[in-house]
Amino acid sequence: QVQLVESGGGLVQPGGSLRLSCAASESIFSFKAMGWYRQAPGKQRELVARMFTSSGSTNYADSVKGRFTISRDNAKNTVYLQMNSLKPEDTAVYYCNAASWGTVNYWGKGTLVTVSS
């Protein structure tokens, strides 16, 4: 059973930074891609950032380009999301996702990020 455990959420002021972590229960190379999604109240879940494990190539939502960076530590089976210049509209529950090489998607339980003064 694949487990994804997020950490690092919390309350931060506008303009501040947070780093989210997602620890996987197995090698990240077991997955085609790993990424972060978010869901704000009353809105659909949306892709924030994604990294394809073999190539290392990344995708970002337009709204976070230049502010957020996805990275990984292969030895720790962990993916990170560094979030800088946070805005109130970044407030959401952030979910770690691991996409298998087939059709299965795995999800963490989510971590809440609140950007407010």
Task: Set out the fold topology.
Elements: E1 4-7, E2 10-12, E3 18-24, E4 33-39, E5 46-52, E6 58-60, E7 68-73, E8 78-83, E9 92-99, E10 105-107, E11 111-115
Parallel strand pairs: 2-11
Antiparallel strand pairs: 1-3, 3-8, 4-5, 4-9, 5-6, 7-8, 9-10, 9-11
Structure description:
The chain has 117 residues and is an all-beta fold. Helix content is 0%, strand content 50%. The chain is built from no helices and eleven strands. Strands 2, 4, 5, 6, 9, 10 and 11 form a seven-stranded mixed sheet that branches. A four-stranded antiparallel sheet has the order 1-3-8-7, with no helix packed on it. A hairpin with a 4-residue loop joins strand 7 and strand 8 (78-83).
How many distinct helices?
A: 0
Report strand %: over 45%
State the low-pLDDT regions, or none: none
Q: Which overall shape is indicated by the principal axes computed on the Cα atoms? A: globular
Tell how many strands the DSSP assignment holds.
Answer: 11
What kind of sheet is the major sheet? 7 strands, mixed
User: What pattern of helices and strands is seen along the backbone?
Assistant: EEEEEEEEEEE
Structural classification = mainly beta
What does the radius of gyration come to? 13 Å
- Spatial gap, N to C terminus: 40 Å
Overall helicity: under 10%
- Mean pLDDT equals 97
